[in-house]
Specification:
There is one protein chain. The protein has 448 residues and is an alpha/beta fold. The protein folds into two domains: 272 residues, Rossmann fold; 86 residues, Arc Repressor Mutant, subunit A (Orthogonal Bundle). Helix content is 38%, strand content 11%. The strands form three sheets. It has a five-stranded parallel beta sheet. A three-stranded antiparallel beta sheet has the order 8-10-9. InterPro entries: DUF3631. This is DUF3631 domain-containing protein.
């Protein structure tokens, strides 16, 4: 796919957006040729999935997209990628590809339905987070640094026709602790709302206190130590930075020396992108992920498709791998779906019984040496804690009949089916730890 480049003196195309957008109803979008499958279909399965037979998505290694004819954009992306590696050590090639595509996507913001956040996070200081923001300032569209900037000042600076690119450094000072985060709830709400077009904040202005709607839609890069709030991470392309290892070196960033070359590249990227606004707005590419992850990554994949060359393949591989990595990280977090996934492994390992008693389930959860349940609280995970975690997913304990005919408090397998389908649809292996046989007698515990 090679876009037609208009005359350099012609006015840039302008993407026209309706007054409101209905999620899931994209309208008469043009589809990318990459979206069509080998049989000429649209690439979507019209059938429904049984909750217990949800297939695992194709892995990144299975993404086979032939390279297309490169456009001017492919060369610009290659050049930007090389510039980024001069100053920053990235955690993976896919992270580098993602940041490259995200920077170019900022120059096409009027075309997007969703404005992906770039979450640049690391476990400690000196992981390169601020250095990456230094380079982004010189390459993104209309950068707006928001250190100690109030939410009111930010949304008053956003225009629907030409939104800036928000750059938030030291986000841990905003969201780093529950007490501090509570004071900055308006900032979190602004960053969440700005992920999707047509999400406004209303404030009264003037002496007569007239209500006025302010736009929030703008792409944003947010850097800080530790993870950002879950609602922001869920709307972000996550770059997990690390400290440089011995032997890894980068070029120091010096504004006086390096800014002119970066600005020249930024201006050439902007000129290329402006001529493709309408085409970018009309493309609806085939995506390797679904739901909010697809919304977030779609602008990056569209940029790759417009550029051509190897970039359509690189973008989809980066998308699939990085989304899968974040899903795994979420599952490992005890406050997320980890408890559901671990219970599912237990049911699979026990041959999918209709129910398990609370004592047996707790005993088996604590047997996994790689899980947090044995050290949960003072004496490991107890019935009350398990009940509280599962209640968030609408799962409650009840009286269950055991194989020996006795009745105990426990959990029925069919109560988990909907939550498993929604939060951990892939059946994972039980792991290296064997599940104890049915004649194991766990210690008596309080029931949930």
């Amino acid at each position: 796919m090679k876009p037609t480049t208009p005359d350099a003196n012609s006015a840039p195309a302008k993407a026209i957006w309706p007054a409101s957008a209905i999620p899931g109803q994209p309208g008469a979008h043009l589809r990318s040729p990459l979206a069509e499958d080998a049989n000429g279909g649209d690439g979507h399965d019209a059938g429904t999935h049984d909750p217990e037979q949800v297939a695992a998505p194709s892995g990144p290694e299975e993404i086979q997209i032939p390279d297309t004819e490169p456009t001017e954009g492919a060369g610009l992306l290659d050049e930007l990628r090389a510039q980024l590696t001069r100053f920053v050590i990235f955690p993976s090639e896919q992270a580098l590809d993602a940041v490259t595509l995200w920077v170019v996507a900022t120059h096409l913001q009027p075309a997007w339905q969703h404005a992906p956040r770039l979450a640049v996070v690391g476990p400690a200081k000196r992981c390169g987070k601020s250095r990456l923001l230094d380079v982004l300032v010189e390459t993104v569209h209309e950068p707006m640094l928001t250190i100690n900037t109030t939410p009111a000042a930010i949304f008053r600076s956003i225009t629907e026709e030409n939104p800036p690119t928000l750059l938030v450094d030291e986000a841990d000072t905003i969201f780093g602790s529950p007490k501090v985060a509570e004071k900055n709830e308006e900032m979190r709400g602004l960053l969440n709302a700005g992920h999707q077009r047509n999400r406004y904040v209303t404030r009264v202005v003037g002496n007569d206190h007239t209500p006025h709607k302010f736009a929030t839609f703008a792409m944003a890069a947010i850097a800080g130590i530790g993870d950002l709030p879950d609602t922001i991470m869920d709307r972000a392309v996550v770059i997990r930075m690390r400290r440089r290892a011995e032997g890894e070196s980068v070029k120091p960033f010096r504004s006086r020396r390096d800014t002119p070359a970066l600005h020249d590249l930024r201006d050439r990227i902007a000129a290329w992108a402006r001529s493709l606004l309408d085409e970018a707005a009309n493309l609806e590419p085939d995506m390797p992920v679904e739901d909010r992850a697809a919304d977030t990554w779609e602008p990056l994949v569209i940029v790759a498709d417009l550029a051509g060359g190897a970039w359509p393949r690189l973008a989809r591989v980066a998308c699939a791998r990085m989304v899968a990595a974040e899903a795994a990280a979420e599952e490992d977090h005890p406050s997320g779906a980890r408890i559901l996934a671990d219970i599912r492994r237990i049911f699979v390992g026990r041959g999918e019984p209709e129910s398990l008693s609370t004592e047996e389930l707790l005993y088996l959860l604590r047997q996994d040496v790689e899980s947090p349940w044995a050290e949960w609280g003072r004496s490991g995970l107890i019935a009350r804690d398990l009940s509280a975690m599962l209640r968030e997913y609408g799962i409650k304990s009840g009286n269950v009949r055991m194989a020996d005919g006795t009745q105990r408090k426990g959990y029925m397998r069919n109560k988990f089916l909907d939550a498993w389908r929604r939060y951990c649809p892939t059946v994972h292996s039980v792991g290296t730890q064997p599940v104890p046989s049915g004649n194991t007698q766990p210690a008596a515990l309080g029931e949930g």
